[in-house]
Amino acid sequence: MKTAPESRKITSILKSLREGSLQPTPDFQRRAVWTSKDKIAFIETILLGYPFPEIYVASGEVDTQTGDAIELLVDGQQRVRTIDEYFRGVKPFARTQQITRYSALEEGQKRDFLNYDVSVRNLGIIDIDDIRAVFQRMNATSYDLNDMERFNAAYLGEFKKFCERLAQDEFFIDHRVFSALDIRRMKDVSFVASLTATMMSDYFHRDDEIEEYLERYNEEFEEAGGLEERYRAVFDAMNQMGFDRGSRAWKKADFYTLFIELDRAINREGQQLDFDAVGSRLSDFFVEVDAVRNAEATPEGIVGEYFTATLQSTNDRSARVKRGRAIRSILAPE
């Protein structure tokens, strides 16, 4: 693969974004993860005239009638987006006092900014699968990308789309299961993918099996309809249980176990649960678990076992199994 290095001025990049000839977020890109502090520091680099690493583009679709072409931004999404945000004066640059806003720059400084040379590596016309492969390889050893962000470059199919859609469900939003950082780093999608894979199998170690499901159900995911019904049944059950906003039920490790065990009881075993009674028992149980942290010794029984399984390595299979055993005993007490 021959690549051509070139230099483009910021004004040219902004024009391409405005006209839509540069696509900054192809499907394989990760979500924007830079914080306001990161963005401000990056723009400061440009204002000082310092260089930053080259960005990668590739040729996309071409309209053979008009000759108009689209370029895909293979690597450098956040740098390009941040440049555009600074130029337009939107958040986080609307009111920042850490650097001079673009609108407040002197005319000469504005020209310097717009004429700043950005190093661009043009991959030319290559197959979309090759573009994804380039993106994966560029980030394969990067600690800035987590597993789900790397998977996002490789799998664009039905299983991933299902998990993305469920991760954006109002249930998760209303109960604040995911933080803003979780969402930026695609940890919400990773969490739902892990939930879904567990619903289809059983507890596994960390996220070891997610890629297998992404690959297996990349082309077709016929189980999606039935799984969504199971999700809705558990959502309804948890809503009826009336957990307080600060309950352990909404912490990810606890939520994971509770969700899986409710799915097992309601959808797989057909148990008829009294949601008010179960919710009350679980709330009392979570209070007891929280109280152990300040106790002189860890109690025996399910409270102690559950608490121990929340201290470290919470996503290990052994910890998940222990928490699941405790929750099952509360859902259907003898």
Summarize, please.
The chain contains 16 helices and five strands. The chain has 334 residues and is an alpha/beta fold. It folds into two domains: 5-141, no CATH class; 147-331, no CATH class.
Reconstruct the topology from this structure:
Blueprint: E1 4-9, H1 10-19, E2 22-23, H2 36-47, E3 55-62, E4 69-75, H3 77-88, H4 107-114, E5 117-122, H5 128-139, H6 147-154, H7 158-167, H8 170-174, H9 180-184, H10 187-200, H11 210-216, H12 224-241, H13 252-268, H14 275-292, H15 301-308, H16 317-331
Parallel strand pairs: 2-4, 3-5
Antiparallel strand pairs: 1-5, 3-4
Domain count: the total is 2
Task: Give the overall form.
Answer: elongated
Total helical elements: 16
Order of helices and strands: EHEHEEHHEHHHHHHHHHHHH
Q: How confident is the prediction overall: mean pLDDT?
A: 86
Main sheet characteristics: 5 strands, mixed
Report strand %.
5-15%
- The whole-angstrom Rg is 25 Å
Q: Considering DSSP H and I runs of 4 or more, what fraction of the residues is helical?
A: 40-55%
Pfam families: GmrSD_N
Domain GmrSD restriction endonucleases N-terminal: 24-155
